[in-house]
Every structure is written in structure tokens, then in C-alpha cells.
């Protein structure tokens, strides 16, 4: 699938290629929507695999953003967590060639490529074709700094071990009745649970999560792709389990009073924007750093493993007690955490207004790319 010819008024043609994962596709799409809303003469070709088109093809987007697909050269999204190494290697070795063939098919000349930082081959493509490449980093700036300065650990002899060799490293919109369900709940009474779409916790841990949530007596909305029917049976009538939801809209709903998150950066930003306290359960990479920010620095959440001994496995008794206490709106600790979350919400909202840091940076970037 490739987009139709460009409008004669198009001032700039952007090709956006996200890393194939919900936590990367969402921020790339949000960036593209912001760019096109700021400049009506911008055309965006948004490149995804055919499988991902099936997941997001019917989601709302402006007409100036058009999907284009490459073949399914990667392990399926529905099974990639089983062999993450093979998936990561495929993103580095199998996407470049079909992406470049797609560029040859586009009618409008490409002014700039915006690529996820983890798709480093996009820079090689841009260099070969003399097309500027902008890199979208989907994690906290602090983690970017860690990556950028990582070589200093080896340069200064700080590694206590030898480095390993370098390695390459179904649309669910039918579930939208969950909004009617949320509308029926009291303010701040629902715990929203989403533990990421890329890496899942074990089946045993999912069962403990379900039992803990059910026993807590707290109303919850849980997003669990591929397992929603089974988990709904385990959870009973105390909450609702769906395969997909519009996360930002859910977090901003008046009935939602908490967010149990894996600490993906996009999810964290959305939680901050909504002003909801969080329970953190990081899995890998930047998520542990982000959890530290939420719990220790910003003080707007709890560590989900707080008080857990003997490894990372969370028992249902721990979960039910934690969730019950976390959602106790009358506790002093909860009130203070909510107050800080609301303060951070104001800061986050101000950043996207005229004169705010995010708005000014976006305008500056847009000005730069329309000069090419």
C-alpha cells in the first residue's frame, strides 16, 4: 500500500518510520499529527508493516497523514515476546531494503525522514539518497544521556565484566463500549491497568494479578491484548478487561483515579498529562529509570514491588492489599500523592501551550524541516 500523489500545495513531504511497537508508533503518530495541525501544507507518509496496518489502519488521523506499508518481514506482533532477540535482530536487518523500495514508489519527492532512533539503518538510507533524517527518541532524556555516554564506562575501566559482542540487536476498536462503562463509575474510583504491549509478564504472574485485583474490591479497567477473555473470567465482575483502549482518553476520564503501569515513557507522559498517581511495575530498559522518577523524584506513585521479598514475583495477597491502599482516596499519603500529580499535570499542560517548551521546540523543528 502506498499513498496517492501529493497535493500541488504540499510544501514538505515527511516520511515517518516508527519502530514497530505500540510504545513507539503512538508517539510517532502523535508527533505527525502535531506537525500537520501546525502546517496544513505538510504531507506525511507513515510507514508501518502490513500487520500493523491491520491494527491501526482504522484509527482516526487527518487526511494529510497517509499510511504506506512494507511486507511482514518481522516476527508477528502477537508472538514476538516469545523470542525478543530474533525480533530485535529482524528490525535491524530486514526492514531497510523494503523501506528503500517503498521510497522508490512514492509519487512525491521526500524532503525529510523522521525515524525512530532504534532504526539506525534509516540514517544510511538518508545518506545514500541525500535526504535529511531526524531521529525521534521515545524514552526519557536521562536514558538518552546514559546511552550517549555509555562508552565512558569502558573508556574509564568501570566495567567489572567483559562486554558481550555487539548484536543487532486485529483492530480492537470494538471494545469502545468501555467508555460507557467508565461513565457509570464514581469519580476517581477506577484503577487503570496496562503493563505494556511489547513484553508481557509470565502467565503465572498474570493469574496472580487477576486474583489480586479481584480480591482488592477496587474497580479496574485492565488492558491485556490476547488474554482479555480468559482474564475477565478470572477477575469476575469487579472490573473490566479489554484487548485495547484509547489510553490517553481513558486516563483523562473523571472516573479513573490511578494507573498501574510498566513505565513505558509514552504511558508515563500520558499519566502525567492526566494527573493520575501511578503504581509502577517496570520490566526492562528505560522503565526502571522512569519508575525511579515516578516514585522517588516526582513522588507521584508507588513502587509495585515495595516490600516484596524473594524475587520479583508478586503474590495476589500483596497486590490486593497494595491496590486497596493505593486507591484509598481518604488516606493522607494518597491525598499528598494526588496533589503532586495535579501539580505536575499543570506543568505538563503548560508545556504544550503557546510559549511552552514543547510548543516552541515543535515550532522550531517544523521551521527547520520546511526549509529542505
Automatic annotation (TrEMBL):
Keyword Transport listed: no
UniProt keyword annotations, A-Z: Transferase
Gene Ontology terms, MF aspect: quercetin 3-O-glucosyltransferase activity; quercetin 7-O-glucosyltransferase activity
Entries under Gene3D superfamilies matching the protein: Glycogen Phosphorylase B
Top-rank lineage group of the source organism: Eukaryota
Family: Belongs to the UDP-glycosyltransferase family.
PANTHER family: GLUCOSYL/GLUCURONOSYL TRANSFERASES (PTHR11926), UDP-GLYCOSYLTRANSFERASE 85A1-RELATED (PTHR11926:SF774)
Protein's name in the database: UDP-glycosyltransferase 87A2
Organism of this sequence: Sesamum radiatum (Black benniseed)
Amino acid at each position: 500500500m502506498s499513498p496517492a500523489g501529493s497535493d500541488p500545495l504540499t510544501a514538505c513531504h515527511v516520511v515517518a518510520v516508527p519502530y514497530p511497537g505500540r510504545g513507539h508508533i503512538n508517539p510517532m503518530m502523535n508527533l505527525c499529527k502535531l506537525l500537520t495541525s501546525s502546517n496544513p501544507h505538510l504531507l506525511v507518509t507513515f510507514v508501518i508493516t502490513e500487520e500493523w496496518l491491520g491494527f491501526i489502519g482504522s484509527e482516526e488521523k487527518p487526511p494529510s497523514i497517509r499510511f504506506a506499508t512494507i511486507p511482514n518481514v518481522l516476527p508477528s506482533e502477537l508472538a514476538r515476546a516469545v523470542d525478543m532477540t530474533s525480533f530485535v535482530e529482524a528490525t535491524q536487518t530486514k526492514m531497510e531494503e523494503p523501506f528503500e523500495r517503498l521510497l522508490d514508489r512514492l509519487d512525491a519527492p521526500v524532503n525529510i525522514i523522521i525515524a525512530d532512533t532504534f532504526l539506525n539503518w534509516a540514517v544510511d538510507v538518508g545518506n545514500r539518497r541525500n535526504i535529511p533524517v531526524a531521529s525521534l527518541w521515545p524514552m526519557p532524556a536521562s536514558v538518552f544521556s546514559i546511552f550517549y555516554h555509555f562508552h565512558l564506562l569502558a573508556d574509564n575501566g568501570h566495567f567489572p565484566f567483559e562486554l558481550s559482542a555487539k548484536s543487532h540487536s486485529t483492530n480492537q476498536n470494538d471494545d469502545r463500549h468501555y467508555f460507557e462503562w467508565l461513565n457509570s463509575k464514581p469519580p476517581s474510583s477506577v484503577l487503570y491497568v496496562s503493563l505494556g504491549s511489547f513484553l508481557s509478564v509470565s502467565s503465572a504472574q498474570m493469574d496472580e494479578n487477576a486474583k489480586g485485583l479481584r480480591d482488592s474490591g477496587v474497580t479496574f479497567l485492565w488492558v491485556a491484548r490476547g488474554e482479555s477473555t480468559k482474564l475477565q473470567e478470572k477477575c469476575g465482575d469487579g472490573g473490566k478487561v479489554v484487548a485495547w483502549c484509547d489510553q490517553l482518553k481513558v486516563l483523562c476520564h473523571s472516573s479513573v483515579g490511578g494507573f498501574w503501569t510498566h513505565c513505558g515513557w509514552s504511558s508515563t507522559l500520558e499519566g502525567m498529562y492526566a494527573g493520575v498517581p501511578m503504581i509502577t511495575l517496570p520490566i526492562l530498559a528505560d522503565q526502571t529509570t522512569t519508575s525511579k522518577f515516578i516514585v522517588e523524584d516526582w513522588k507521584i506513585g508507588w513502587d509495585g514491588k515495595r516490600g516484596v521479598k524473594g524475587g520479583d514475583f508478586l503474590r495476589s495477597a500483596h497486590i490486593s492489599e497494595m491496590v486497596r491502599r493505593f486507591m484509598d482516596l481518604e488516606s493522607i499519603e494518597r491525598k499528598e500523592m494526588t496533589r503532586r500529580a495535579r501539580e505536575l499535570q499543570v506543568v505538563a499542560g503548560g508545556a504544550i501551550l503557546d510559549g511552552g517548551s514543547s510548543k516552541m521546540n515543535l515550532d522550531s523543528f517544523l521551521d527547520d524541516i520546511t526549509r529542505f
